[in-house]
Structures are given as structure tokens and as C-alpha cells.
Design a protein that fits this description.
The protein has seven helices and 15 strands. It is an alpha+beta fold and 323 residues long. Strands 5, 6, 7, 8, 9, 12, 13, 14 and 15 form a nine-stranded mixed beta sheet that branches.
Amino acid sequence: MHDSPERDARSFRFRVKRTEAGQRLDCVAADNLPDLSRTASATLIRNGHLTVDGEQRKPGYRVRPGEEICGSLPLPDPVDCQPEPIPLSILLEDEHLLVVDKPAGLVVHPAPGHPNGTLVNALLYHCPELAAEGEDTRPGIVHRLDKDTSGILLVAKQPASQRRLSADFKARRVQKTYLALVHGRPERESGTITLSIGRHPVDRKRMSTVSRKARDAETTWKLRERLDGGALLEVGLKTGRTHQIRVHCASMGHPVMGDRVYGRRATTALPAAIRPARQMLHAWRLSFRHPVHDNKIDITAPLPWDMIRLWKALGGNIRLETL
């Protein structure tokens, strides 16, 4: 048995597992603190913010089973989140919640490198009364989409609604369905992928199905149309791991078109005239219970123009209104 990581806004404490014996200290710290990259872990160690059994060590120190690793994470510089008049495509709104169709390229919330121009800045302008539950930089946010993924995003307008919706996402009571243009032509009509996902063992910015610390992940898919060198898939998420659809599609040999992290080689093989500028992944449908009235809401966001253009270039001919 080993202690699980204990951490609050700053502090953490855990013991080295038997399976981690002999590994570098910076790698073990990065594995046990998911938000920490190996580079950041090494910096933390060099600056004296992490100790092993009360002693300071070097990043390359080889750990031993049972050693106690503890320390503190410096708080990030505060982000001053200001309202900005950024247009929003609103699909549904009442006094409790807001459903928007996020365009590709829009970051959801402020973070290092993206201090403004985010969806949250736009939300604060549209809803000045938006209550911040938790982090001030993420008011109302109950789930996220990658910057270059388009589609439906659900926002809570009140703390009570945020708590209820966050609980529903955590309990997997919210159904999320995506549309994806992928490379290759699947032979089967549907399938399920259950490969676990964790941080890539070398590149900490990527996720992988081969990871020292993977978590269960399940993705379902259904073929909507075979195209010229590709396919349009309807994809469902049973879990919500980082980059899950992109990693799972790549793992079955059908990476998402335009994905320069998990499908770069396939994407650069496309003719330059139709090569997409971002991953062709769209959060298409969301089904959930209203946080106050408890009625079921099923809402869709139309396929964006860049996906329609590529789909047509690849010979797509099904009626979009049937999607």
C-alpha cells in the first residue's frame, strides 16, 4: 500500500510506490502531480520546493520505495479576467444556464499564454452577473473543449447550477456526441475503444494509450459516411479524458484530419488545397438534465463551414440536415 497524493492549492505529499523504484525523481513527481510537466518538476526540485524524506535532492535522484516526497507548488500569477465584447453563438439560454456553439480557435478560459480573448472573457461581457464558482478564471465552466475543437459548450450562470451540472458530468449522466472527419475508411460500421489514456511517457504535452499512469477511457463510434480517403464518424464519450477522441481515433489507425499532434503525418499527406488548419472535430450534440427544472435537454450545433468544405471536397453527399 502507498499513500495517495495529498494536495491543496499549494501542498502535496505522497510515498514512492514499489513500481516507481529506481526512477528519476523529476519523472516520479510529474507522474504523481498530473498538472506538472517533467521540466516544471525539475525546476520545482532545483528551487527547493520538493524534498525526499525531508532532504533536498537533484532532479536525477533515483527514488526508493516508501520514501516520502512532499513540497509545495507556487501559486500561479493571478489572471485578471475582464469582460470583452467577443461575439457568442448562443443555442439556448435561461436564468440558470447558457449553451454556446464555440468556434474553433477560441480558448475556453484564461491561462498562461492566453490571458484574454477567451470564451470566459466573452461570457463575462454577455452575463455581467455570472457567478464564479471555484477558480475566478473559470466562472460557470463545467466542462471544456480543446482550443481547435468546435461545438457545444454548457455554462452555468449560478453557483447552484454549476454544482449540479458539474456533479452530472462527473457521474457521467451527461451524454456528449461528436462528429469527426478521420483519415482512412473503416471496414466496420461501428465499434468501441477501451484503451486507457495517460500522459505520454516522453512528451508530457501529449496523451497516450501507453502510459505509466493511465486511466480507464471508453469511446464509441459509428460510421456516418465513407469518403474519398476518409470517413465521417459519429463519436460518443463514455469517459472524459484529455484528448480522448483524438488519441483513440489515432490508436485505431484513423486519426482525426487536421490533428497535428496525433495525426500529423496523415494530415500533411492531404493535398495542400484541402488540408485543414485545425483538427476536424466538432462537439455536435449534448444531452443533459436541466439543473433546476430537471427536464431533459437535447441540443445540437450545426457542422461548421470548414468541416463542411472538407467533407464536400472528399465527396460527401449525405443530407446534412439528417445529422
